[in-house]
Write a structure and sequence with these properties.
C-type_lectin-like/link_sf; Jelly Rolls; 4 domains; CUB domain-containing protein; 34 strands; seven-stranded antiparallel β-sheet; elongated; 46% strand; mainly beta; CTDL_fold
């Protein structure tokens, strides 16, 4: 649907007015009426056009040739061959009826004609949300059993975050369903086969309350079935909102030209720590580069940073550093306490385009845990143990899969073995089965 919809009506012959109208949340901003004369010459024609929702006048007319007419009823004279006027209605008003009626009356010679046409605004209930950030709920859709709600996308590569705020519907009475390739806050990949969401909000796992759709050429949408009571908010996020690294080493570089909110997560297998190197600063600065071993910086500890704010979360510890325009480039080196770290970067729009950040990392194995085993394995007596990703399998099939990978299912012989396997499992975010192989 385009931003404008044109409607044409010919007088004096009667006929239908073809039109479309949607709320300001949606992609159509206005309806344009074009009233034309059938005959090229003739007397002046008086006309009145109005719109109603239910029994109430609704909407506002704005005429290019007649700017002083009233908001709900447009009355004027057709002296030329054509008149054009726009009609809109407010998004802040709740419209509980899905129908709208347009009425056109005009006088020609001694007779008065009337065209009356009622049209369903959302006959098949497909809503296209226009705003990049808004709250949306069951009150915003018509009273129908099925609706599809399409969320906005931008060509600049922004992702979409949805937070479910309210939900109350028995599963036999309805559900909501989000469609599209998305990643939840817990990094579980979900597709259009995601389960239907129903019941009460407090009964849902966090992965069904907070949903992240990465940048995609296809707009994600929500299916509303039955009569669920729900509300949610959504907003577009930067391309780097939720980036996860799981390889043995990696890097990225940011040179933001405007406002930016990024989250980088580094998840390494149990038995590894993250050795990170950060270069932060103003590339145009003439100051001498600094080298530090940590983020601790007294003058830059405030989160209200008018520049580039870097925050590193390592378990229960958090370090931050603020860089403003003119600061010399600084190099920070650190080794994490755990196998997972989260790096958050935010840039304010007024900080200038010279600020930048480059991060490189590598896995640093803990010898007492990994021993001589390779990346992704931990030592267990003379064996190397791993917990690969995969579906739940019966014992026989799991053994076959382990054999295919060059190992066997692990045997737990004592408390030490159990403690090693427990630590391995507790530091994974996916379903696994454990197998082992010889050094």
């Amino acid at each position: 649907m385009s931003d404008d919809v044109s409607v044409q009506s010919h007088v004096p012959s009667s006929g239908l007015i073809c039109w479309a109208a949607v709320a300001a949340l949606l992609r159509v901003r206005r309806v344009t009426f074009i009233i034309q004369r059938m005959d090229q010459e003739g007397p002046t024609i008086d006309f009145v056009i109005s719109t109603t929702m239910g029994e109430k006048l609704s909407g506002e007319f704005q005429g290019h040739q007649y700017p002083d007419c009233g908001p709900h009823i447009f009355t004027s004279q057709l002296k030329s061959n054509e008149v054009s006027l726009n009609w809109t209605f407010q998004a802040s008003v709740d419209y509980t009826r899905p129908n709208i009626t347009f009425q056109l009356k005009y006088r020609y010679d001694k007779y008065t004609y009337q065209i009356l046409y009622t049209y369903p605004i959302m006959e098949d209930c497909q809503l296209y949300l226009r705003e990049e950030e808004a709250e949306f709920g069951h009150r915003d859709i018509p009273h129908t059993s099925d609706c599809q709600v399409w969320f906005p996308i931008r060509e600049s590569g922004h992702g979409l975050v949805i937070e479910l705020l309210k939900l109350n519907v028995p599963c036999s009475k309805g559900y909501i369903h989000f469609s599209g390739l998305n990643v939840t806050q817990h990094q579980h990949f979900r597709t259009h086969k995601q389960t239907q969401i129903c019941g009460k909000l407090e009964e849902l796992p966090d992965s069904d309350r907070h949903i992240y759709f990465p940048s995609s050429p296809m707009s994600p949408f929500m299916q509303v079935h039955g009569s669920p009571i729900f509300s949610l908010n959504y907003h577009l996020v930067d391309y780097c909102y939720n980036v996860t690294f799981v390889a043995k080493n990696g890097s990225f570089e940011l040179k933001p030209s405007g406002e930016l909110q990024c989250t980088f997560k580094i998840y390494l297998p149990y038995g590894n720590r993250v050795a990170m190197n950060l270069q932060i600063g103003d590339s145009t600065s003439t100051g001498s580069p600094e080298t530090g071993s940590s983020f601790q910086d007294n003058k830059n500890s405030d989160s209200l940073c008018n520049g580039l704010l870097t925050q590193l979360h390592d378990g229960g510890n958090t370090w931050s550093h603020c860089t403003i325009a003119g600061d010399a480039e600084r190099q920070i080196e650190m080794v994490s306490r755990e196998n997972k770290v989260v790096l958050k970067v935010s840039v304010r729009s007024g900080s200038g385009g010279a600020l930048g950040l480059r991060m490189t990392y590598r896995a640093e194995p803990v010898e007492s845990i990994v021993g001589m085993c390779g990346f992704g394995w931990v030592a267990l007596r003379q064996f190397c143990v791993s917990a690969p990703e995969g579906p739940r399998l019966p014992w026989a099939q799991a053994e076959m899969e382990c054999t295919r990978r060059g190992g066997h299912l692990a045997s737990i012989r004592n408390q030490h073995d159990q403690a090693v396997v427990d630590s391995l499992l507790l530091n994974r975010l996916v379903k696994i089965y454990v197998y082992l192989r010889l050094f």
